[in-house]
Amino acid sequence: MRRTFVVGAVLTACGLAVGLPAQVKERPLPRLAQKDGRYALMVDDAPFLMLGAQANNSSAWPAMLPKVWPAIEYLHANTLEIPIYWEQFEPRPGQFDYTAIDTILTQAREHRVALVLLWFGTWKNGSQHYMPEWMKLDPARYFHLIDKNGRPADSPSPFATASLEADIRAFSAFMRHLKAADPQRTVLMVQVENEPGTWGPLRDYSPGAQKLFEAPVPADVLKAMNKQGSPPSANWQDVFGPEADVCFHAWSVATYVGKVAAAGKAIYPLPLYANSQLRDPIKPGAPGSYESGGPTDNVIPIWKVAAPALDIVAPDIYMNEGAEYLKVLELYHRDDNPLFVPETLGSAAVARFFFSALGLQTIGFSPFGLDYTHVRAPEAGAPAPREAFLEPTARNYRLVAPMMREIARLNFEGKLQAVAEEKGTVTRTLPFGPWNAIVSYGVSRNSRAVGNPEPTGRALVAQLKDHQFLATGFFCRIDFSPTDPAKRRQFLRVEEGTYENGVFKFMRILNGDQTDWGLDFGSEPLVLRVSVATY
Ligand code: DGJ
Asked: How far away, in angstroms, is 452 Cα from ligand 1 center?
């Protein structure tokens, strides 16, 4: 089955031949736009929503790609996030191997899928496991950080100048190649490093690092963190107390990553981001209970000033619980930071939070590990179709893919609201001027809403005109109620249809049993255009 959604059209229109860039028309650069406190990722100069999936860590080798694309197609994803490995890219110092990148670019175009490339460089999950062998074999030059006991840890030192220079050189070569090989703009964004920081030690305790730790905190860090330099020295310990080590490490790592990002961006100014392992968003533990140095919520301002070439710091959300998940989304949805979820679980419990992220104008959502290189056992232990692990994400994307551009545009214009069911909350009211959209969960005919047995409900409502709405979702009811209590709602016209190439294609009018109790959304994609009036 060939997909017809918009990114397909974009990529088809611009040609498929990576080998012949000279014959391919250069398309506008993907970029981030901001309006009235909202962000959008602009692709071909219009808002775009990345319906993403991230491949497993070892899936970016050409031999593995045949196990990736069928999953992406099944998902109706429009964007694949996939690593570029430093160890593959620079097998010998200064010699770059573009074969993996070129294969990924060519095949992405053939499959009409956009890409987010993940630079597995100095840091991968806090370690330096993706450095090329020639670096691993020279730890005196490309050194690890030193723990409190004076021993090298399984984490690169952010003060290793030779590593920084090597990363800058390699990342620059990678971005230079992308600039030349991708006039089609198949690549929308690049992630710089992966979950940078350190597990275990809170920072580098080497003598050189210690000296900096005892030096005054830079003025821009003080300002960003809303701190006064306290006498006598205003060093990191004085200013940040128990969080001194993690703040210092965040500054050290962000400064390094920021230099790598700036070098790449100077060559090819694609949107760049860093992803973060999180700390508990509601009850954050003490330093040491989470990865130190990455853009965790407590140090986002430090990352912003130390790494200004990064457009986004983004949360990797491996959480199932509603309160925590929603809190993370709020923490990373900031005036100075577009919300983007580059990694999350692909489980049924988490699928609904795609709608919560949409409600905060996310520019993309991308569950991790969704390819066939590593198919997990079915959750309940029973035999299941090969696609079972893809299905929760596929349900969302099947619904949204045909109207991805409308959703992205309406969201950027501030006309869209979307929510997910939270345990114990059976109704939600979404205000739209003279109308409220009322979302309820676990309701049939005229019974009271009791919530779904598991909180799987999700709803999206967008105002198309003063009295016309787009309504969709799963496992919920949506109704409309005038804010004027003297008035009552009547449906003028409830149209079921589908979006094709940006145009709403009418299928039928729903009425009678299908509307008398409200508009019910179940497990199948259903898109309604609802015109309301009062009496
Ligand atoms: C988060 C990392 O960013 C991913 O690369 C991967 O290691 C997952 N954790 C866990 O599988």
From this structure: 31
Q: What is the distance between the alpha carbons of residues 241 and 227, in angstroms, rounded to a whole number? A: 12
DSSP state of 206: S
**Which atom number of ligand 1 is nearest to the Cα of residue 194?**
3
Q: CA quadruple 85, 91, 94, 99: dihedral positive or negative?
A: negative
Report CA(368)–ligand 1 centroid distance (Å). 8
Top mutation candidate among 316, 317, 376 for ligand 1, by most atoms within 8 Å of CB = 316
Q: Which two tokens stand for residue 531?
A: 């015109």
Radius of gyration of the chain (CA): 24
* 57, 191, 313, 373, best to mutate for ligand 1 pocket (most atoms within 8 Å of CB): 57
Distance between CA atoms of residues 251 and 513, nearest Å? 60
Q: What torsion, rounded to 10 degrees, do the Cα atoms 506, 508, 509, 514 define? A: -130
Phi-psi region of 381 (alpha: psi -120 to 50; beta: other; left: phi over 0): left
With a cut of 50, list the residues of the chain below it in pLDDT: 1-21
What is the side-by-side strand order in the sheet with 476-482? 427-432, 435-440, 476-482, 519-521
Owner of token pair 């100048």 = 161
As given in the structure block, the two tokens for residue 458 are: 């999700």
3 state SS of 285: coil
Give first-to-last CA distance, the chain, whole Å.
47
pLDDT reported for residue 2: 37
Q: Is 451 left (phi over 0), alpha (psi -120 to 50) or beta?
A: left
Two structure tokens written together for 433:
């001027």
